[in-house]
Amino acid sequence: MRGKLRRWWPVVKTLLALAILVAIGQRFVVDLRSPASAELWQRSLRPGWLLLSGMLYLVGIGFSAVYWRSLLGHLGVRPPLGMALKAYYLGHLGKYLPGKAWALLMRAAQVRPAGATLGAATLTAFYEVLTTMAAGSLLAALLFALCGEEGGPAPSGEAVQRLARLEAPSDGVGWALALVLALLLAAATGLPLLPAVFNRVAARMKLPGREEGAPVPRIGLAHLAEGLALTGVGWLFLGAGLVAALWGVGSDFSPSWQGLGRLTAGMAVAYVAGFVILVAPGGLGVREFFLMLFLVPELASAEAAPAARATATVTVLVLRLVWTVAELAMASALYFLPSGRVK
User: How far is residue 94's CA from residue 102's CA, in Å, rounded to a whole number?
Assistant: First the structure.
């Protein structure tokens, strides 16, 4: 069986690459045919800021790649940094395919030469993804608590339900509701990470490549704390990437430090919600819905309401295009580079 898989693996990789390109191409076609694209072509874009936005995004998610490599090291697998980065960025493209497992499987396949079993690599990749999402939610909750403006509607169960259905609350999203939303997302992504929960579940899972009865290395609180700290820094870069995209679409919006905190928190909530709410591959639609909820009020403080909504809409569209192109560029560059020697 393994011999057949090894012979067919180059064909499988080629088909996966083509499927990813088709999926991304279809998304670009839909985006560029959307009403927001008409506004996009009328704006004077600033390529330098857009390039910076893409670079900040790649650096930000790179912190998650470093954490995943650290988790593999805890399991006794120490791939070279180049191999881990290559596996992470290539696997990141798998999120554009239906089913979130593709990204994990694609990543795991790249570190097999370092001695990682498919089960161990997939398990650590899953833990890293959840840790990244939990860190984003916790950071958002902290930033909303520190930078949230007074006033706004009080949180309610009905408002939370409307957000879960991707319906904007009739009276908007105040800082208190945003804080509650961030905490709910933190609970959804963080509770499975607790060692008492994760280790018990992992021990009962039938992982490929693990011998019957073999112990599973345990994840401790120190590993979780390391991940929350590392990936939390990465979210700050993503928040900066959002601001760079705003300037890249021609906006002269100049946020205060509190505004930067709210924008970063909104970006994190939008990204995590796209992961938790299973609607479309890559969080398509969900991420944009939540990002608009937080962008428009911030921009409305400096622009008229119609202009603020137009700027937010274009920013959301450009952000997705720029960050997707950045992922493709990074994955393409790393694909043709040597991964490094395995010690």
Answer: 5
**What is the distance of C-alpha 215 from the center of its chain?**
31
What are the C-alpha distances in Å from 22 to residues 18, 127, 280, 329?
6, 29, 15, 16
Amino acid, res. 52? L
Which residues are CB-contacts of 54 (< 8 A; sequence separation ≥ 6)?
241, 322, 323, 325, 326, 329
* Residue 335 burial (10 A CB sphere; 0-12, 13-18, 19+): middle
| Residue 264: partners with Cβ closer than 8 Å, 6 or more residues away | 139, 140, 143, 235, 236, 238, 239, 240, 242
Question: pLDDT (tens digit, 9 = 90+) per residue, 111-132?
Answer: 877 777 777 788 888 899 999 9
CB 152 within 8 A of CB 175: yes
Choose among 46, 20, 26: nearest CA to 318: 46
Neighbour-count burial for 100-125, b at 16+ CB within 10 Å, e otherwise = bebbbbbbbbbbeebebbbbbbbbbb
Return the minimum-mean-pLDDT range out of 58-62, 207-211, 281-285: 207-211
| pLDDT recorded at residue 131 | 96
Residue position matching structure tokens 């990141």: 92
Residue 64 in 3-state DSSP? helix
200-218 per-position pLDDT tens digit: 887 776 655 454 544 566 7
CB 340 within 8 A of CB 82: yes
Task: Tell which wins on pLDDT, 227 or 163.
Answer: 227
**Span 11-20, mean pLDDT?**
51
